[in-house]
Amino acid sequence: MTEEHAAAALLAEPEAVPLPEPDRVLLHMPVDIRNVSLVILAVLASLFVLHWAKAVFIPVMLSVMFSYALSPVVNWLELKRVPRWLSAAVLLLAILSSISVTAYALSDEAAELLESLPMAAEKFTRAVKTRGGTSDNALESVQKAASQIEQAA
């Protein structure tokens, strides 16, 4: 029995002794030009894909935004015991009818604006031309100042 106790004591001792901590290994990873170029190419490719697929992504994102914006009204109508499909249809019809009534009410103002557009464009071109003359004078004065500084130096 004493040998068993001695063996148990020997087995218990290594647990009590702390083991030395191994040296830490620091890895110095330089930025590889290949990694940077691959990241740049991936970003450019994703931008190209988004630009190419904008005909799909823009309507999808608009529909998601409208569904989040209009869901509280549909939920409220659902609480009033209106079926969800009927409340969504009524809401869409109300939105479309309000847009059409607004467009009809503003049609006279839009026609007046279209009639006055050529005059406004002519006034704008005259204003740009007169402003262009002052910018030439400003450019000439800056050039004169630069030549005087050159002569002084």
Question: What is the global morphology?
Answer: flat
Radius of gyration: 39 Å
Order of helices and strands: HHHHH
Query: Per DSSP, what share of the residues sits in E-state strands of 2 or more residues?
Result: under 5%
Spatial separation of the terminal alpha carbons? 106 Å
How many structural domains in the coordinates?
2
Percent of residues in helices = over 70%
The helix tally amounts to: 5
Reported for the largest beta sheet, the result is:
none
Label the structural class. Answer: mainly alpha
Low-confidence stretches: none
Mean pLDDT: 81
Q: Give the total of beta strands.
A: 0
Keywords summarizing the entry:
5 helices; 2 domains; 153 residues; mainly alpha
Describe this structure in words.
This protein is mostly helical and 153 residues long. It has two domains: 33-105, no CATH class; 108-142. It contains five helices and no strands. The chain has helices at residues 2-16, 33-52, 54-79, 84-105, 107-152. Helix 3 packs across helix 4 (84-105).
